[in-house]
Amino acid sequence: MLGLGKKDTLLLGIVAVLTILAPFIFNPFPVNSAMAQFNAGYPDLLQRFVIFGIFAIGYNLLFGLTGYLSFGHAAFLGVGSYAAVWMFKLLSMNVIPAIALSVLTAGLFAVLIGYISLRRSGIYFAILTLAFAQMTYALAYSVLTPITGGETGLQLALSDPRILDGAASAEGNLPVPGLFGLEMRDSVQLAVGDWLFTFSAGYYFSGLVMLLAFYLAIRIFRSPFGMMLRAIKSNQQRVNYTGLNARPYTLAAFVISGMYAGLAGGLMAAMDPLAGAERMYWTASGEVVLMTILGGVGTLIGPVLGAGLIKYMENIVSKINSDILHGWFAFMPDGLEDFIVSIIYPFIGKGWHLTLGIIFMLVVIFLPGGLVEGGQRIARLLRRRKSDKDEDAGQAKTEAAE
Amino acid sequence: MGILEVKNVNKRFGGLQALGDVNLSVAENSVHAIIGPNGAGKSTLLNCLVGKLIPDTGSVMFDGQSVLGRKPYEINQMGISRVFQTPEIFGDLSVIENMMIPCFAKRDGAFRMHAIESTATEQEIIDHAEQVLEELNMADKRHMQAAWMSRGDKRRLEIGMCLAQDPKLLLLDEPTAGMARADTNNTIDLLKQIRDEGKITIAIIEHDMHVVFSLAERITVLAQGRPLVEDTPENIKGHPKVREAYLGETA
Question: What CATH number labels A6-281?
Fold first, then answer.
C-alpha cells in the first residue's frame, strides 16, 4: 500500500494510530490522582514529541543511513524557526507558507554547510558542522540582531505588515498562527469521569506533518538512493571504485535531513510564534544525536521513540521535587524516608540529566541498537516462549539449527 | 597498441623512487600479470592506474584516453574495475544488494537522485544482479549479509560486482592473498572462466606463482620500481634476471 511493503505499511499504520490516540495514551491517570503529574497528554508536550520526532527522523536519514555524524543540526532547526516567524510577520499568519519557507531556507542553508563540511568525514566532519552551527548561533545572538532579534529572540509585533491579512491584526491583539481560520492553539476538552483529555489543533496538525515526514522517510529508506547511502556508510572505498560519486549522494542526504530540521523548526514557530538563538546552541544539536542513538540508529521508528523518551523525561522527571518524593515515601518511618529521598533526589528535578545519562549509558552498552533493539529482543523472547508452549519436537530442531 | 598504455611513469615518495620509467602495454582481452618482490612498486603502479595516485611524470592511456587527473569513480566509469587485496564489499548489505549497486552504477552513472521509487520495483536491476549471482553460483546466498561470508565467497562476490559493470579492464591486486588453497583454486577457476570468454582484459598483481602461471599470457617483472623483463610465462620461469631479483643473487 502507498508503495510500501507489508511490514512498513503496518509500521506506518501503528504510528498513525498512536499519533491519533496520543492524547488518551499519554493521559492514563485521573486529573487529581497522585500520579497525574506523569500525564504527558497535554498539547504543549505532545507537540514537542512529534516535532522533535520529525527532527530526529530527519537526522537519522543522514546519520543512520550515511554514518556522517553531524553535530550542528540544530542550526537548521533555528533557521527554520526564524524563517517561519518572518513569514508570520511579513506575509500571513497561515502556517503553510511559513513552514514552506522554513523548509526551503533550511535546505539552502544545508547546501552551503554540507558542501563545505562534506569534504571531510568522521570526526572532522562533525567538528566542521559544529563550528558552522556555533557560528550561526553567534551570528543570530549578536551580529544579526536586526534579523533575529538577538538575545530577546524574534517575536511578532502589532506593527508587522502581514500583507495578506493585515486588516485582522488591527484589533489590538497579537494574531496567532492558524490554518485557514483554524487557530493552532484551539483545543477541545473531553472529560470522562475523572479523566480530562485535551485535543489540540496544533498537535493534530504537527502529528499529520510527522506522519507525512515519517512516510517519506520510509520511502527514502527503501529507495535505491537509500541503498546507496547505506553502501556509503558500509564501504566508501568500494563506492568510489564502483563508479559512483559519493559526494552528491551524501550532500543530498545532508540537505534532506537539514530540510527535516527546518520543518521541525517551522512547526515549533507555528505552535508558538517566536524564535530564539538558544534553539541553535550546540547542546540542542547534541540532543538530537542522543535521541537518535537512544532510539536506534538507522531504524525507522527508533528516532521517534528516542525523541519521545528524552522529551518526556525533560518535562516530567524534571518536575518531580523533594516534596513530591516525601509525599510518595510518607508511609515509611521518618529516618528511612529521608534516607530514600536523599538517594533518589539527585536523579530528579534538575538532576534529570543524570537519569538520562545513566539510561543512555545502559542503552549504549547493553542495547547498541537502541530501544528498537530492546523491543526486538523482548519480541523474540515472547515468540520463543510462545513456541515453547505449543511446539512439537521438529520445531525445536529447526530453531536449534538457526 | 594495447588497451592500457603506460609510458615513462615516474613516482617519487620523498627520497624513494617508487616507480622509475615504467612502460607497460596490456593487449586487449589478454591476461597480463605484474610480478616482483616486495617493494617493487606493483601496488604503486596499480594505484596510478585507478586514480588513487597521480604519477609525477609520464602518461597512462586507457582505451585511447588519459586517466591522469581523473577521480577513481570517473576512471571506473571509463571501464576499469578494481579488485582489492582484502575484499572490499559492502559488509552491512545483503549479497543481492551488493550486486545491485554496481548494476545501478552501470545504468545510471555516477549519481542519480532516485529517492522515491522503491528498490523492489527496479526489476531490471534485480534481474541483472540475480543473473550475475547465478553465474557465480551464489544465488542461494542472496539474502545473506555479505560480512558473514567466507573470505573466498567475499572475493567471488567482489569479482562478480566488478563483472556486473561489464568492465573493459579488470585490475586485480593479489586476489588470492591470505586465502585457503581451496578458495585460491576457486578464484583461479573463476578468473580462467573470464579469460576464456575473452571479453575482458585482466591485469593482475600476484605473489603466488601458482596463480600467475596458471592464468597469465604475458608477465612483466618489476624490481625496485623498474620493469625488468616482459615476456611469456615460459620464458619468465627460467629467466636469470628474474631469479636474481627474487633471490638477490646471481643464479
Answer: 1.10.3470
